[in-house]
Amino acid sequence: MPVGKLRPYGRSLSALFAVLCGFTVVVGGFNAHAADPPAAKKQTAPQRKPATASQGKPTSATRKRTASTGKRPAAPRKRATASRKTAKLPSVKAIQAAYHKNFTKFMPLGVEYRMTITDTEAAIETERQRLKEKQDFTKANPGSIVVNGKALDEAQFKETMRHVGEEIQYLTQTLSDESVKNRLKGWVIQRPYVWTDGQSLHLRRSNNPSASDDTLFPGALTPPEKLSELYNSIVLASWSKDNDPPLRCWFGGNAPGQGRVANVLNDCIAISLPPMGFVKEDWTHKRDWHEWDLFMTADPSRFKVVKRTEVKGRVMYVMDEVVEKGERARVWIDPRQGALPLRMEWSYVSTADKVVTPFHRDLQILAVKKVANGFYPAKIRRRDLIPDAKIAQKQREEFAAGTLAKDAPRPPLVTGRITAWEATKFEPKKAIEPAALALAFPKGALYINAVDERTYRTGDSQPLPPAPQPIQPSQVAPPLKIAEWIDGKSRNLDSFKGKVVVLVFSQKMGDTQDDQSNDDAVAFMKTLQGKFGSKGVIFLEVFGAKSNMQRVRDFQKARGWKSLVGIDATTRSNVGASAEKYLAGNDSGFVVIGRNGRVAFNADALEEETAMQMFYQAAQTLSIPWPLDKNGPEDQIDQQQVQIFEHIVSKQIEQALAQP
């Protein structure tokens, strides 16, 4: 996942650089010569002059020399019978061992690296074509889509259209002018630091990887309170057998769960590790490890050394993954540079048909650092290839018109995405402070134990009580806890027994603020009350705890609407008692209570998948394009959102009214 080439600017500067930094930069990778030490002058044997005398008989001079020395003349030197091509190839196991041995020379090792992604015009064009295809697909009618010879039923059709709508939304966002500009320019996706001695692991990662000036080492980790002071925007993780459980992560910030403890890294974060020379599944999932480490740690029987070759004078061994049919990896090993795989290609093969497609992905070292008699890949580049979009589109049009030649070649593959990996700091034989591996949390900080999924407070052995969950449909609606009603009277849900009740929770109305976000709630409730007030539906609005009642009265008066309004009681600072029971502490929400006193609908209790399905169906019913055009006029988007949510809530109220 690498880039560019390091080029020395002159012999004197290169020499000075090597002295100061303690390592040699080997310029280039697969297509470049290694920086070998100066070779001694070759000793060439004197060439024999062609014989002028007749062949087969010794001359008198020859006989005299033989007689005088008593030795027979030396026979001509025979050429080696085994050529380089027929020399014995090393085993896969030997190559893997050499690769691992190379990395042990650096341990313990610290590496800070930067990963960037750059998309090409070919990738952008491919996505534009896909977006158009998806938009055309939405014009299909139920029953017109056939899968495996069978038309989709109504439910399958709706589900398919929902997924298509989500893809359209994603493509629309990624193809905006600003997004395309950033994709073509390239963006930093990770900028971590990883340290290991082969037994333990410590890593750091900025929450803002594009900020290259941000240091990952703002200060000491002790005392633990330094984490809250210095590491609020830096993620830390340490795996050590001395920890229980072995993994500790710090995310910073002020939200609950600043820390997390777990067994493996991928229980906390996802990260692409640098080449480290080994794989420890105790640390993290295989997908986090570098491709080369996975390749060199896999079962040797999965691979075969197929040949010895030369690339620009450099000896290479070619290894193939043993695959009968499917994707196959081929790798070029450099035995003179720590058995590093200087290049890796992925193709599709069919052994029976003797077919090997052009490679569709490759991974290549562009620069190698030589240090401590070992070799480390300083720059790596990965390319993902895609069919040329314009040629592919032309062939589709010709196919539709019936003019595509039967023997037309597949569209050529071109680069779609480049992922670059560059080591910006390389620290072999680097010791680490014990506090970095212990990673003690500040006293009182909240952390989650991924083993039991409970929240703890540092210093306490017992977990905190489980976090409240939004009340679910069919559960009995709990009593409201209201500090004050707008009319000064007291009431509760029992006062409306046998009626459908709609609760609208709104944000806190402060002493001086004119919270415009409540305008939408008022307009929304006025519309609903106009539709359902005559049917006996009760609407109650609950403002956030510690709201100013006079501000609430002024707010309603200015908008010309009266309703039953209460201010939520307070159980802890700025948290409403009613909102905590119904919404798990959220400050706004919408709940429908049926005639039987049970919750019929709670927007906060919806799973994301269910909510998206409801929004999609409402948009289809209202003939509103879905997903909404986020680049459209803001007023239009707001209006469409209100229409969709009003439709959803109206449907829920109608269903509640239909129940006894």
Question: What would you note in describing this structure?
Answer:
The chain is of the alpha+beta class. It is 28% helix and 26% strand. It is built from 15 helices and 28 strands. The strands form four sheets. It has an 18-stranded mixed sheet that branches. The protein has a six-stranded mixed sheet with strand order 21-24-23-22-27-28. A hairpin with a 7-residue loop joins strand 8 and strand 9 (247-250). InterPro entries: Thioredoxin-like_sf. Residues 35-88 are annotated as: Disordered.
What is the 3D form?
globular
Mean pLDDT, all residues? 80
Helix content: 25-40%
Largest sheet: 18 strands, mixed
Uncertain segments:
1-72, 77-83
Report the sheet-strand fraction: 25-35%
Oligomer state equals single chain
* First-to-last CA distance: 63 Å
Q: If helices are DSSP runs of H or I spanning 4 or more residues, what is the number of helices? A: 15
Q: Label the structural class.
A: alpha+beta
Per DSSP E runs of 2 or more residues, the count of β-strands stands at 28
Quickly list its features:
660 residues; Glutaredoxin; six-stranded mixed β-sheet; 15 helices; 28 strands; 26% strand; Thioredoxin-like_sf; Thioredoxin domain-containing protein; signal
Task: Write a brief structural summary.
Keywords: Signal. The chain is an alpha+beta fold and 660 residues long.
What's the layout of helices and strands?
Layout: H1 11-21, E1 24-27, H2 60-69, H3 92-104, E2 109-119, H4 121-137, E3 146-147, E4 150-151, H5 154-174, H6 177-185, E5 187-190, E6 192-196, E7 201-206, H7 225-230, E8 234-239, E9 247-250, E10 259-262, H8 291-297, E11 303-311, E12 314-321, E13 325-334, E14 340-350, E15 355-356, E16 361-371, E17 374-387, H9 389-401, E18 413-428, H10 434-438, E19 446-449, E20 454-457, E21 482-485, E22 501-506, H11 517-532, E23 538-543, H12 549-558, E24 564-568, E25 570-572, E26 575-576, H13 577-583, E27 589-593, E28 599-602, H14 608-621, H15 634-658
Parallel strand pairs: 10-19, 22-23, 23-24
Antiparallel strand pairs: 1-16, 2-5, 2-6, 2-18, 3-4, 6-7, 7-8, 8-9, 9-10, 11-12, 12-13, 13-14, 14-15, 14-16, 16-17, 17-18, 19-20, 21-24, 22-27, 25-26, 27-28
Helix pairs in contact: 4-5, 5-14, 11-15, 14-15
Organism: Symmachiella macrocystis
Region (Disordered): 35-88
Protein name: Thioredoxin domain-containing protein
